[in-house]
Structures are given as structure tokens and as C-alpha cells.
Amino acid sequence: MWACPLCFVLNFVLSDIIIIIIYELPRRNRGMRIGIANDHAALEMKNEVIEYLKDKGIEVINYGTDEKVSCNYPEYGERVGRAVVSGEVDLGILICGTGVGISLAANKVKGVRAVVCSEPYSARLSRQHNNTNILAFGARVVGIELAKMIIDEWLAAEFMGGRHQTRVDMIMAIEQK
Ligand code: RB5
Q1: What pTM, to 2 d.p., does this model score?
Q2: 3-state percent helix, strand, coil for the chain, nearest multiple of 5
Q3: Quick one: which of 54, 57, 74, 115 is 20 to 30 A from 170 by CA?
Q4: 111 lies in some domain
Q5: CATH number where 138 lies
């Protein structure tokens, strides 16, 4: 099909360049984008968190629910999990009654590393050591001010790589078994 090896190589290089121009550059040039979702137990807190993030200049995409009627948290955990893994958003925040169910659901999506936190220390370490890409907490567990502190620590922290990269790679390899 390819008359010369150079044409073959050029085809790959050019398709990579096109992908970078169409998808990667717009992503790199925009600011942080966070996907957020909740169940019926956390609607009010979700709305407060959205306002808090927007005030910080962060773009927020709301994946629901925006109803107070009883709903099933796995649906919302999966939505944000898929948005994070596809790159639609950079990071995710999930809130249910405890943060447990919705994070369990998100963690079933390949590529997700969701953590439930009730205090800022674990939130920070979960980024530095575990490179978490979704933060979850419970509206029935933490108040809004503590939630803000947890979010701030989580967003400010950076993955440290090195030996932690090896361990995160091991976690992700479990998905392939
Ligand atoms: C809903 O009642 C509750 O089960 C849910 O919000 C969450 O806490 C589950 O883990």
C-alpha cells in the first residue's frame, strides 16, 4: 500500500500532528475544567461547591442530578468517571450521602482513581502519592466549610511521581488482569 517507507512514517507523524492540533492544543490552552455530580442527598452541597469553584475561576461541568427525588448514585459516579477518562474534564468531584457509593461506582470505570475524603490531609496525599483524578465526599459527613478545605488541598497538591508512579502503575495494571 505504501510505496516508500518514508510515506508510511510521514502518515503517522502527520496524523499525530493533526490530533494534537484538533484535540490537545485547545485542551492545553484552556484553564482547569472540573466535572461534578451528586445524588439526591447532596444537591444543595453540590450547588454550593459549583459556586465556590466558579468563584475561583474554574470551569465546572455539572453532570446532575439536579432533582431532590431519590435517584441511583452509580449513574452519576459513572458519568463523571467517563468524563474524566475521556478528557472531557480534567478532574472530577462526586458527592453523595457519604461519598462512598458514588466513588465506588466511579472506580469501576477504567482509568479512574477516586478517593473518598472527610479531611484535607488525605485529600492532599491522595493527589501527591496516588494521583487521584476524582475526589468524593459525603454531604451527610462533612459541612460545606470542611468540604471547601478538602477541595482546596486536593486541587493545590501535585502528583510527586517517582516511587509513587511505580505504585500507581501497579494499581492501574490490576485493571488489565
Ligand atoms: C442515599 O440514601 C445514600 O445511600 C447515598 O447518598 C450514599 O451515601 C451511598 O453511598
Answers
A1: 0.87
A2: 55, 15, 30
A3: 74
A4: yes
A5: 3.40.1400.10
Please work out, in degrees rounded to the nearest 5, the angle formed at the alpha carbon of residue 21 by the alpha carbons of 20 and 24. 50
147 within some domain: yes
Distance from Cα 115 to the centre of ligand 1, integer Å: 16
- The residues that bridge with 91 in the sheet, in sequence order, are 34
Q: If you take atom 8 of ligand 1, which residue's CA is the nearest one?
A: 97
Within 20-139, where are the H helices? 25-29, 43-55, 73-86, 100-107, 120-128
Rounded to whole angstroms, the Cα distance separating 81 from 64 reads: 13
- Compute the CA torsion angle 140, 158, 64, 112 (nearest 10 deg): -100
- Residue whose Cα lies nearest atom 4 of ligand 1: it is 97
Dump pLDDT digits (tens) for 97-140.
Answer: 999 999 999 999 999 999 999 999 999 999 999 999 999 999 99
Which parts of 87-130 fold into alpha helices (H)? 100-107, 120-128
